[in-house]
Each structure stands twice: as C-alpha cells, then as structure tokens.
Automatic annotation (TrEMBL):
Pfam families: adh_short_C2 (PF13561)
Signal sequence interval, chain numbering: none
Matches recorded under PANTHER family: 3-OXOACYL-[ACYL-CARRIER-PROTEIN] REDUCTASE, CHLOROPLASTIC, SHORT-CHAIN DEHYDROGENASES/REDUCTASES FAMILY MEMBER
Organism name: Pseudonocardia autotrophica (Amycolata autotrophica)
Keyword hit for Oxidoreductase: yes
Protein's name according to its UniProt entry: 3-oxoacyl-[acyl-carrier-protein] reductase FabG
Keywords annotated in UniProt: Oxidoreductase
Length: 256
C-alpha cells in the first residue's frame, strides 16, 4: 500500500519555459487542478517568468529555476532547491528535450551526444533525484515523455538520434516502475504524436498541420493541452494502479 496523497502537493516539470511548449501548458493545467509547481528549464528567465504567471493565475505556489538537466550536478541541485521551497514533492513530468532533424548518415559525434544527453540522460538524472524523495515519502508519480517517433522508427520531423533517445526513455521508465512499485511510486510514459509546438521546426503552417494529421486517424494534430491532460491523469491519485505503461497521445498515428 502506498501512503496517501498529501493535500498540499508539488509536481516538478522539466522543459517548461518555451512560450508555446507542452511543459508550459501543463504547468498551467496542473496548477488549475491545485498542484504547486516547480519548473526547470535551461532558460532560467523563462522558467522564472512562467512560474510567476502560473502562481498569479491559479493562486498556487510556483518556483522556476534554470538548469541543464543533462548535467547531473545541475539537475540534482535544481530539484534540491525546488524541494526546499515548495510543499511535498509528489510527482515529476520530464518534458525537457531537443529535436534532431539530421539524416542518419550525417549524424556526427557531437549531434549524437547532444540529443542523447538532453533527452535520455537528462530524464534519468532528474528522475533518479526525484525518485529518492518519492520513495522516502512512500507515494509518488513519475512520467517520462517519449515520442511516436521512437515507436514508428522516425517518420516525424526528428530522426534517428531522437528516436533512439526517446525509445530509451520507455525502457528507463518501465524499469523504474518495476523497481519503485513496492515503494508506492508509479512510473509511466506519455508518447505524443505531432503536437503544435515550436520543437517541430518552427511555427506550423495550416498546410503543414494538415500534412502531419494525414497519417493519423483524426483530422488534426495535437495541442499542448492534449498532452497536459494525459499528464494530469497519470500523476493523479486515481492513477495509482497504472504503472509501466505508455500512453500514446497521437490521434491514432500508432496503434499497439
């Protein structure tokens, strides 16, 4: 049995500074549901500004901090700071990531290292640090963010290094789910399809949105709110019997 959810609870979100990003949208969505929010982004000013806006909009406590999650020392220090300034840490949603449109035969060592370190290692370092606290409390929720690109072998804006790193997140989180389940901690993955954010290579035209949607079952691409709603469920008290799963939010692009 896991410990009960505290009434005053905090979620940490990484990669939450981009103005049109999924992390920012999720911060507002979770704050509206009563979560206090800790934000980590490589852009410290953006993280701080988003936290101030979230707190003002929803009356929760919110703190933003700058850190490169691929740097273990920086990632751990950022979580330390947020945990000290906010109510009980209960959940993590690790959005921080970078795209990579480089064709496979052109991928050099620097590009491979950049993409894998931020997407996969960054998720690991923050997850491990947060997990230490969640295990100590006897209850918690961890959500990693993969991509339909990992499941389909690319076929999106980003190519091989991105797909490999995002596939690694699925293996990482499943293993975390298995190890930490006895301690009351669940761990799941969200796998988005095409979402209308700037990580897709800039603001999308209506024509490009339509082309992306054509592969799926639905007639549109996703919005940050679609992913935020999935995160809200997976970190909720009601999702306590869901762990080791990958929830696709992709308009039916990949059915499994």
């Amino acid at each position: 049995m896991s410990a009960p959810f505290p009434a005053e609870r905090t979620v940490i979100l990484t990669g939450a500074g981009s103005p049109r990003g999924i992390g920012r949208a999720t911060a507002f969505h979770l704050a509206e549901a009563g979560w206090n929010v800790g934000l980590i982004d490589v852009d410290a000013a953006a993280a701080e500004a988003t936290a101030a806006e979230v707190a003002a909009a929803h009356g929760v406590r919110a703190v933003g901090i700058g850190a490169d999650v691929a740097d273990r020392t920086a990632a751990v220090a950022a979580v330390d700071t947020l945990e000290a300034e906010l109510p009980r840490l209960v959940a993590l949603v690790a959005f921080a990531g970078v795209s990579s449109p480089v064709p496979y035969l052109d991928v050099d060592a620097d590009e491979w290292r950049r993409v894998v370190s931020i997407n996969l290692e960054g998720t690991h370092w923050v997850t491990q640090r947060v997990a230490r606290s969640l295990v100590g409390h006897g209850v918690g929720r961890i959500v990693g963010v993969s991509s339909v690109s990992a499941q389909r072998g690319g076929g999106t804006y980003s190519k091989t290094p991105y797909s490999a790193a995002k596939a690694g997140i699925v293996g990482l989180i499943r293993s975390v789910a298995r190890e930490l389940g006895p301690h009351g901690v669940t761990a799941n993955v969200i796998s988005p399809g095409p979402i209308d954010t700037d990580i897709m290579g800039g603001t999308l035209s209506e024509e490009r949105k339509a082309a992306m949607a054509a592969d799926g079952v639905l007639t549109r691409i996703g919005t940050p709110r679609d992913v935020a709603a999935a995160a809200a469920y997976l970190i909720s008290a009601d999702a306590g019997f869901v762990t080791g799963q990958t929830l696709n939010v992709d308009g039916g692009l990949y059915m499994h």
